[in-house]
Write a structure and sequence with these properties.
Radius of gyration: 13 Å
Distance between the termini: 29 Å
Helix content: over 70%
Order of helices and strands: HHHHH
Number of domains: 1
Number of helices: 5
Low-confidence stretches: none
């Protein structure tokens, strides 16, 4: 029996998780896992998210607007990624679990 995967939920959970991981203390380890599982394009995007969140955190003192904006960008990015590479859905789900740790 196979489980039904609701892709909009997968990408929204993953987007929030990836942004949280990019802002977290273990962002380098998470980014390395993204590179290994999902490739250089998403790895580079995650590094850019980290840099943006650090800069915005300094500029605004931690306003949530930056994380919400980045989560929206990641939702779109991951949706497009999984449409072109549906075989990577489990990798995204595994990384989502790690990002929420």
């Amino acid at each position: 029996m196979s489980a039904v995967v609701h892709q909009p939920r997968v990408v929204w959970d993953a987007a929030r998780s990836f942004v949280g991981a990019a802002a977290g203390p273990h962002h380098r380890e998470f980014a390395a896992e993204v590179l290994h599982r999902l490739g250089p394009e998403l790895y580079e995007a995650l590094l850019a998210t980290h840099e943006y969140l650090v800069a915005e955190g300094i500029r605004t003192g931690g306003d949530r607007t930056a994380t919400d904006l980045e989560a929206g960008k990641w939702r779109v990015r991951l949706d497009e990624f999984l449409r072109s590479r549906p075989d990577s859905t489990q990798d995204v789900r595994d990384l989502t679990s790690r990002g929420f740790e």
